[in-house]
Amino acid sequence: MSDFQIRLSGSGGQGLQLAAKILGGAILKEGKRVAQSTSYEPTSRGGLSRSDLIIGEEAVEYPLVTDLDCLLILDQVAVDSSVDVIRPSTVVLIDSERVTVAPQVECKLVSLELVQAAYAVGNVRTANIIALSVLAELSGFCRAATLQKIVEDSMPTRFVALNLDALEAGVDLAKGIEFPA
Fold it and tell me: Can you give the residue range of the structural domain that contains 118?
């Protein structure tokens, strides 16, 4: 496996850093290597926030993304910052409500009602976990069971059931999504 590059992006307060921490833990638990970098504007809510992860079988030699394999965009504010690292094979998952203009580049675009799915789970703040689960299902960078174990082990007890429901909602959303060959 060559390095696999993932970016989780949106606005501050959407739980992107937490999602990246969960994903990083799952990757490590599966015996792979991961390098993570973060970037966020100094506002706690509304400014650009993103976390990049590079996964490899061996030590990651360069810790910054250059050609994304997966991109999550949870807010319009994050669209333009990733256009230069999207390639035609990049899986780009956007929230259809909060991203009104998708990246204008060739990619494997998936537009889902992530925020609405989070409301259905019971808390809008679970959109990050739902999206993480969708990306894992679509791209196979880690197993759903591993994400579940990390959520169980790392979340405060009162949030575990909610976030496990969010993971399951993501698996359900990903069913039936196919990309053209």
Answer: 4-174
